[in-house]
Recover the amino acids of this structure.
């Protein structure tokens, strides 16, 4: 079933039934786990210093 079809049907419901539908959907959507964002690993101070020395402060010969 397509969400657009459900939306069309829901718009024709009486106000009380529409409110009941929202409550039922609210309970159902809380059951889905939220996707966790992966954290980027931070670099150490020494790694940052080595990167800067290697890329920014290159000695041109």
């Amino acid at each position: 079933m397509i969400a657009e079809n459900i939306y069309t049907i829901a718009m024709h419901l009486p106000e009380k039934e529409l409110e009941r539908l929202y409550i039922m959907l609210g309970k159902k959507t809380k059951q889905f786990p939220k996707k966790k964002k992966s954290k980027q690993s931070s670099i150490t101070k020494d790694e940052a210093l080595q990167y800067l020395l290697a890329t920014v402060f290159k000695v041109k010969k």
Observations:
- The two ends are 67 Å apart (CA to CA).
- The chain has a mean pLDDT of 83.
